[in-house]
Design a protein that fits this description.
This protein is of the alpha/beta class. It has helices at residues 25-36, 54-63, 77-90, 101-105, 107-113, 126-138, 200-204, 213-225, 242-254, 272-280, 295-300, 307-319, 337-350, 367-376, 401-424, 435-450, 463-477, 481-493, 497-510, 515-527, 531-538, 545-562; strands at residues 2-7, 40-45, 67-71, 95-99, 119-121, 150-154, 157-160, 184-185, 188-189, 209-210, 230-233, 260-265, 283-291, 323-330, 354-359, 361-362, 390-391. Bound molecules: iron/sulfur cluster.
């Protein structure tokens, strides 16, 4: 049995692909369970295969799958439907299985309208998919009704089996890193809250289930041994169990894993103790769902967090040299210029270093979607349209599109015009054992302004001056490779070559192996006309294509000079 697990492309391309690009970790768990049961499985990340559409048929013909499982979100459901169609044309016997969040909430819709879909896996999919594959392999379709957590067609009718039982002991699952390589990991499943815009608790359940810290760190370790050093911990509320998180951090340190990771948390589950250990263990950023500065709107969204908790979380997170990233939603029920002003006021109080601003969208699985269906008699057939989601404002006559767009513009402007001041307000805890991390914090932030996301935003003024200040702050704590490089590049861009050489020379002295520092220093010596000196750095990098170009230039200049 050859099984492909495909993560299809979304309907629309995005300028920021980070959220949609990676294959969800659940797919790797499904793959690992199948591998443990000796199936031939491959995971294909096809989030952008529509850019080379002929590859779809080519790959399917080459791999000859018997079963294709699709990981379906609302955004990529059309991609899945289109690929399934092609697969069926190439081989009418291939079995198509849809799983994932959108399939869980739209299983009937998919089976009703798309004959190319044979089965839907509903909810947590590892064992349901394994059992289904076993029956398909044996051709034993009579027993499909015994497989919990699936839906299919039987004698022209759509049938759903009993729900699958949530996996209580997550450690019983194989660690997918044994078979695959990826950066998104998860420690727990489930969320006890019920925000009205979110389908996560309905999908994973409201009771939180955890891996053991030992299992989770082993997971990181296997990936680390494969060369992965940056992780996204994708749990909805990573810090909900303080003791477990601290144990994870201590284990990361004991194993001396040199990793960097980011996580998501709830403002009410943060204190100095947990932040200290998270920072020591490599955490550089925590994202918090704030949603709105208006308590009235947060109540309408059933967010259940208090303004004081938000303020506290942001001050403490920054104090420990971790970037606090704020998720805000706008265009919510009862949104107005007054509530937007409340959000602006909150932004000024918490001074986030990064904000992610979304227009509220409603999806199956969320209470707001059910309310919308009741209110307007809209059925799931709405998803026959080629849309990725439904903006809440489209369902509310009190919210005009242009006003909602203006809300977003105002929020972004407010952030960008004040980001310099927000960065300046950060006051790091004075603990000597964290100085190296503090240096890392400032240098990362500096790079965000000099080369990262903020470097492209026109509304932010004096970016290189901000970056310069941050790199200097970094070096005031500890020697930092990124800060030397960043400062050197700033000076180089300003044509202050001597100054650049001074900074980069110090960097090379401390980090003699650094390719970037040696290259940059070589180039700056070239800028000063000292080609022999430049060669002394560039010749260390003969294997590098970029360096070879500059080496050649140096020799040319030296020959010209002699003749
Ligand atoms: S938004 Fe976060 S806290 Fe709220 S229900 Fe979803 S996962 Fe839970």
């Amino acid at each position: 049995m050859k099984i492909l697990l495909i993560y299809p492309y979304p309907l629309f391309d995005r300028s920021q692909e980070e959220d949609i690009k990676p294959v969800p970790i659940g797919v790797y768990y499904v793959g690992a369970v199948l591998k443990e049961n000796h199936y031939d499985v491959e995971v294909l990340n096809w989030y952008n295969i529509h850019k080379t559409p002929q590859r779809i048929a080519e790959v399917l013909l080459e791999k000859e799958p018997d079963i294709i499982g699709f990981s379906i979100l609302n955004a990529n459901r059309w991609g899945g439907i289109e690929i399934a169609e092609i697969a069926k044309q190439l081989n009418p016997d291939v079995k198509i299985v849809f799983g994932g969040v959108a399939s869980t909430f739209l299983w009937k819709h998919f089976l009703k309208h798309f004959p190319q879909i044979d089965f839907v896996v509903i909810g947590e999919g590892e064992y349901a998919f394994l059992d289904l594959v076993g029956l398909i392999e044996k051709g034993n379709y009579k027993k499909l009704g015994n497989v919990k957590g699936i839906a299919f067609r039987k004698n022209g009718k759509i049938v759903r089996t009993k729900p699958a039982d949530p996996i209580q002991n997550l450690d019983e699952l194989p660690i997918p890193a044994q078979y695959f390589e990826y950066q998104h990991v998860s420690f727990s499943r489930g969320c006890p809250w019920k925000c009205t815009f979110c389908g996560s608790p309905k999908f994973w359940g409201q009771k939180i289930r955890f891996h053991s810290p030992e299992n989770f760190v082993r997971h990181l370790e296997i990936l680390h041994d494969k060369g992965v050093t940056f992780f996204y911990v994708s749990d909805d509320n990573f810090t909900i169990n303080k003791n477990r998180v601290i144990e994870i951090c201590k284990r990361i340190l004991e194993k001396d894993l040199k990793i960097v990771w980011v996580a998501i948390s709830r403002v009410s589950y943060i204190d100095e103790d947990i932040l200290y250990w998270m920072r020591k263990a490599g955490c550089t950023q925590i994202s918090y769902g704030i949603e709105s500065g208006s308590e009235k709107i947060r109540d309408l969204l059933n967010k259940k967090i208090k303004t004081e908790e938000i303020k506290n979380a942001f001050v403490l997170t920054h104090k420990y040299g971790i970037i606090a990233r704020a998720y805000f939603i706008y265009g919510s029920p009862e949104e107005s210029w007054e509530t937007i002003q409340e959000t602006i006021d909150l932004i000024h109080q918490i001074k986030p270093l990064i904000c992610v601003l979304y227009i509220l969208e409603i999806y199956p699985g969320a209470k707001l979607y059910l309310d919308f269906q009741k209110k307007s008699n809209v059925t799931d057939d709405i998803w026959l349209k080629r849309i990725e989601g439904i903006c809440y404002f489209e369902t509310d006559p009190n919210l005009a599109q242009e006003t909602v767009f203006a809300f977003g513009k105002k929020l972004r402007t407010e952030l960008y015009e004040n980001i310099d001041q927000f960065v300046e307000s950060v006051s790091l805890v004075d603990k000597q054992e964290l100085y190296e991390m503090h240096s890392d914090f400032w240098s990362r932030l500096g790079m965000t302004f000099s080369h990262g996301d903020y470097s492209k935003i026109e509304a932010i003024k004096d970016k290189d001056k901000i970056a310069e200040r941050l790199f200097k702050k970094s070096l005031s704590y500890y020697p930092n490779h990124r800060a030397y490089l960043g400062l050197g590049l700033i000076k180089q861009n300003r044509k202050e070559f001597e100054e650049s050489v001074k900074i980069l020379s110090k960097g090379v002295e401390l980090f003699p192996e650094s390719e970037e520092l040696n290259l940059c220093l070589g180039i700056n010596h070239m800028n000063l006309g000292d080609y022999n000196k430049a060669l002394s750095y560039l010749l260390k990098l003969q294997h590098s294509k970029e360096a070879s170009y500059y080496i050649e230039q140096c020799y040319k200049e030296l020959v010209t000079f002699k003749s």
